[in-house]
Amino acid sequence: MEALTGSCLQIPCNFRVKQGKEFNSTTTTFGVWIKNYPQFGRNPNNVIFNSSGTVSTYPMNFTGDLSQKNCTTLFSSLKTTYTDTYYFRVENEAFRATAACDPLQITVKDSPPKPRIEISGDVKEKESVSISCSASTPCPHSPPQLTWNLQPDSHHTMEENTDGTFTTRIQKSITLSHEHDGFIITCSARYPVNEEKDVKTSEERKTLSVSYAPKNTSVSISPSGRVSAGSRVNLTCSSRAKPPVSRFTWFKTSRDAPIKVSEGDFYSFNVTDEGVYYCVVTNQLGNQTSSEIHLTIEGGVDHLLLGAVLGGIIGIIVLIGLVVFVWRLKSPHPTAHQSQVRTHQTTRCGFVIIWNQAASTITSCLLHLFFYVESACWRDSDNRRRRRPLWRD
């Protein structure tokens, strides 16, 4: 057993009597502790404690009921010089026996043992695991105080082990995510010593290694921007996953369904037409799709500009039509009065004709403007293409 200087050690102990031997539980029973060598007849100084009161060299006390064959002992105010091999002896009238074949090795240290961090469960994202920090408790009368960075003021429990020793424990259940990967759990154990006047501390750390499906998947293109038809383009797919990505798959969108075009994190090809590309990455725990990347060929029509111009033209035409329609609705119906009314009607008809001619003229001008902008876009693209060198290094 291991113990800490300035603290105590509870020694779990019980004995049984060999068959044929008689043990009288109704009479007074004494317990004896012997160090170093069980045959104390020649070395009486090896007897360091006797519950009869005759010897109390070491600060010991039987806490168990010897008459019930329970020899549990509390060893207090420990020093490193108490490190030794010990033997238990029982004395009950005519029955006297020493456990010479069952020695107890006690080691007293100045530094406390490190706590133990344990994780139970499948350590991968979306799984619930139980994480515990435990510390050996050689002196259950002054147990260690455990603290960790998972939860402040955690509830402590002290458990008795199958061998009669004790363990102090704190525990927490968490549902893992990829963000927990690489998280360092720190647990400290503070042992009170010297009648709780001082404290000795030990610490343990453990790094979480959480498996997760691909995250942060993205695509990059080189060269960026518009490219010339026939030039070479490189697409790169990157992702973060644990275990690492096992498969990269490239797709090109189409009207019917995406078309698989390549595999691997790097996709290089000669440009023949414009298109939209993306990659799908996969590992043992799942997959993730990247955002789309648009490949535009230099010299193509600027569809956004044309769309804006066309939309503006249509809007103006509709507006003119509405003005004419509203004006006609508000104009009075023709009457049967003679020339003055007809003159007035003729004037209004002339005004309608003027409006119609104006609308036609405006529409014609706008259409000319549309074709002018379109041709300007094409000319600008041609100029840029002519300015580019024919060959690249």
Automatic annotation (TrEMBL):
It comes from Gasterosteus aculeatus aculeatus (three-spined stickleback). This is Ig-like domain-containing protein. The chain crosses the membrane at residues 304-329, 350-373. The keyword Transmembrane helix applies. Keywords: Membrane, Transmembrane, Transmembrane helix. Pfam families: Ig_2 (PF13895). The keyword Membrane applies. Residues 115-209, 214-296 form the Ig-like domain.
